[in-house]
Amino acid sequence: MSSFAADFLLRPLAQRQLGTELSASREAAVLLAILDKPEPTILLTRRTQTLRSHGGQIALPGGRVDDTDPNHTYAALREAWEEVGLPPEDVTPLGELNPFYTVSRYRITPIVGLAPADFPWQLSADEVDAVFEVPLAVVLNLNSYHQLQINRHGQPHTVYFMPWQGWFIWGATAGMFHDLALHMA
Question: Total domain count for the chain?
Fold first, then answer.
């Protein structure tokens, strides 16, 4: 087990609510896959432009929790397998972060997992058109984030974003990254 994994497992998760709880009616789970390298990275995807919602956006592998999924971890691992070909049995779940509520009425549970660095990507052409990695050190550095204050339904909210080598990571993904950085601080 990497030192990050041991460190993550030893730290209690602070109870914070992220995003906006707008009577979330749909459950989702994403895999925050930390690739086990000497300098760990986090796996990200770019959703295909043809998707009905969030096309072209940067995301963590994941999606809606199905009725047949026994829990959020199972759903996140299933989705990572479907989207990028990451075998569920190769991922060591480390824990979960606080739920993140989206304006589209999802309650997303981020599952943190340690994954091998050398598996061959097998992208689902219907869902993902690119994968890339961001160094964990960048994600954990709170100075990597910029924020924008917006009003949503008359309430002020902070939206985080971070540019990385030509990629624009924002919204729920950047918010969950920011939560991870706060968790590890």
Answer: 1
Which CATH number do you get for residue 77? 3.90.79.10
91 class by beta-carbon count within 10 Å (0-12 exposed, 13-18 middle, 19+ buried): buried
Alpha-carbon gap, residue 1 to 107, rounded angstroms? 30
Give the pLDDT confidence of 114-171 residue by residue, as tens digits. Answer: 999 988 889 988 888 899 999 999 999 999 999 988 887 788 888 899 999 999 998 8
Q: Rounded to the nearest 5°, which phi and psi values hold at 183?
A: -60, -40
Domain ranges, residue 43: 3-136
Please give the backbone phi and psi of residue 6, each rounded to the nearest 5 degrees, phi first: -65, -40
Query: In which band, very low, low, confident or very high, does the pLDDT at 18 lie, cut at 50, 70 and 90?
Result: very low
- Output the CA–CA distances (angstroms, integers) from residue 145 to 67, 99, 116, 139, 158, in the order listed: 35, 20, 27, 9, 11
Q: What share of the chain is helix, strand, coil (3-state, %, to 5)?
A: 25, 40, 35
Closest CA to 13 of 96, 74, 76, 92: 96
